[in-house]
Design goal:
The protein has 252 residues and is mainly α. It contains ten helices and two strands. It is globular. The two termini are 28 Å apart.
């Protein structure tokens, strides 16, 4: 038998191959909408933030947010459907594929989907003349890390529920607040003092700061290590939670 993780990944990629046309257009149109409506529209009133043109300042955050939301979105219905409607996970359980292989194969697929979305965003930025070398080099690594940081716990959450209505709770009380209060659209320093420390609980905040540091050439080895260490902690914790919820779900 081929490597079980690769086998699981091949299954997900085969399904994506049949459905990719439905999402291909949005990969490019969403960055254009973000940059024109927020970067240029709102930027026409704000002009500069921290000494940078607003469009240049907001772009790293938008890319990180795209990766964050891709990781979360892919890990909701995609996981629940395998348990509740498609039955793919239970079918895998009757084969030599282990739970770790199921999760690894799925997360690699999520990582690929994220990198495709990030690549499309970078192409749009490059065509707009706003792509910097630091941003181009760092984006795949930072975005991959923040995507997995949210995808692993979301995968665990999705494997633990039976009702898709829980995704509304996740979106309203986790994903949306994280996007709004992670420094994507405005500096964290503008938040109320008691909220500012809470914003650093979100992995997206660390990804946004990493992206801006690389984009503007202000990254230091210490800050890079600390931000990546925090993202890694989320990935590891989410990985263990996913293993627990998968195992419980499959033994019910």
């Amino acid at each position: 038998m081929a490597n079980p993780t690769i086998t699981v990944l091949e299954r997900h990629m085969l399904l994506y191959q049949r459905l990719w046309r439905a999402s291909a257009f949005s990969l490019f149109i969403l960055p254009v909408l973000f940059l024109t409506s927020i970067g240029l529209g709102v930027g026409g009133y704000i002009h500069q933030v921290d000494g940078h043109d607003y469009l240049q300042w907001i772009t790293p955050g938008l890319i990180a947010s795209t990766a964050f939301q891709t990781g979360a979105n892919e890990s909701t219905y995609g996981v629940l459907s395998e348990f509740e409607w498609v039955g793919g996970i239970k079918a895998m359980r009757s084969t030599p594929v282990r739970i770790q292989d199921m999760i690894r194969g799925w997360l690699i697929y999520v990582l690929i989907a994220t990198e495709l979305a990030v690549a499309a965003f970078l192409i749009v930025i490059w065509l707009a003349g706003a792509l910097t070398p630091g941003l181009a080099i760092s984006a795949p690594f930072v975005c991959g890390a923040v995507s997995l940081a949210i995808a692993t716990p979301t995968t665990a959450f999705s494997a633990a529920i039976n009702d898709q209505d829980w995704f509304l709770v996740l979106a309203r009380f986790v994903i949306l607040p994280a996007t709004l209060f992670s420094g994507v659209l405005f500096p964290i320093s503008q938040l109320p003092a008691f909220i500012q420390p809470l914003s650093y609980l979100s992995p997206l905040t660390h990804a946004v700061e990493l992206m801006r540091d690389f984009a503007f050439g202000t990254a230091t080895p210490m800050t890079v290590a600390l931000h990546f260490a925090y993202l890694l902690a989320w990935i590891v914790a989410g990985w263990f939670l996913a293993n627990i919820t998968y195992r419980r779900r499959l033994t019910d």
